[in-house]
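User: quick one, fold this
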Amino acid sequence: MSSTTPSAVRPSRRRWLALGLIAAAQFMVIMDTSIIGVALPRIQQDLGFTPQDLSWVFNAYVVAFGGLLLLGGRLSDLFGARRIFGLGWAILAAGSLVAGFAGNVAVELAGRAVQGAGSALIAPAALTLLFTIFGATPKELTKALALYGAAAPAGGTAGVFLGGVLTQYASWP
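Assistant:
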């Protein structure tokens, strides 16, 4: 007879599902940085960006993300990592909708900045959750950090690939 009880299995399974969500967050944060690059010529054409201003489609996200990252960590400390993680996802989704439905330059840039702000909440909260969930077991923490770390380059690669596929066969939004 096994010493593992069903109740002992469930928390372990939930932890690994949580890791999947945390890794997906890391994947999305990095993918949102790279996915836009392939679509820039279409965005320029559709929204009327000047060549000088086109880099702001990328920069609006990165500046908001980098500028608000420390605030995201502090808010995670003050209000709880789970709450800020969920809030960050909601803000990222809202920014994605705004950017996807943008009809002009200002709305596109605002949407990208909102996406960056959402990502700035997600990233530190995700790392806090990872250490909270797996920190007590160094062997599991190592595995969790490896998966979390692998999500970043996977997101960057997927962003370039998906940006190309979506732009080619659908549309940039």
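User: anything notable?
Assistant: The chain is about 85% helix and 0% strand.
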